[in-house]
Amino acid sequence: MKLRALSCLVAWGLFSTALIAQQLTGTMSGVVKDSQGAVRRGVTVTVSGDALVGGARTAVTGEKGTYQFATLPPGTFNVKFELSGFKTLKREGVTIQAALKTGVDAAMGMGTFQGTVTVSGEARTIDTTTAAETSIDAIPTGGIVLTLDPREGDFEVGDVRIDGKTITGVGGQRPR
Question: pTM for the whole thing?
């Protein structure tokens, strides 16, 4: 009988401690979606506020876009939602009360590129109707100039010019 009474007292003590702990903290949870209503996984959710001992807490949304902070002390908090490619969303002044569940859902909009792209230089115009050597020489190559010159005159038909020098045979073979 004494053992049974002692067991009941110990059980009651554990239960009341758990009950008190639950009543001293609150819970925050929610679902994060995009602007089209699709759930978003991998969103970093950060809760910050003066009531947090040890600094801000973070959670990451799961497969169903949900997150949860189970034991937050009563107080006022700021919540930030971040995901690459989306605008960062901030909620300020979220109140957590002891023994209550607070829902904070978010709808994140698509982000925009932030930065500068600079394109400089002018476009080169190439005359594609003639095969004049001057139009080919105007193309910047940054290396060896290879010219196939099918004209007659100083060159035989099929001669190859590399850096201004005429080569009549390539690899021991004479062009046909």
Answer: 0.54
The full set of domain ranges for the chain reads 25-108, 133-167
What are 8's two structure tokens?
């009941």
Q: Going by C-beta distance under 8 Å and a sequence separation of 6 or more, which residues neighbour residue 26? A: 72, 73, 74, 96, 97, 98, 99, 100, 101, 102
The separation between the first and the last C-alpha atoms of the chain, rounded to the nearest angstrom, is 115
Query: What's the topology of domain 25-108?
Result: Immunoglobulin-like (2.60.40)
The closest alpha carbon to 150, from 170, 137, 132, belongs to: 132
Each residue's pLDDT tens digit, 48-79: 999 999 999 999 999 999 999 999 999 999 99
DSSP codes, 71-108: EEPSEEEEEEEE-TTB--EEEEEEEE-TT-EEE--EEE
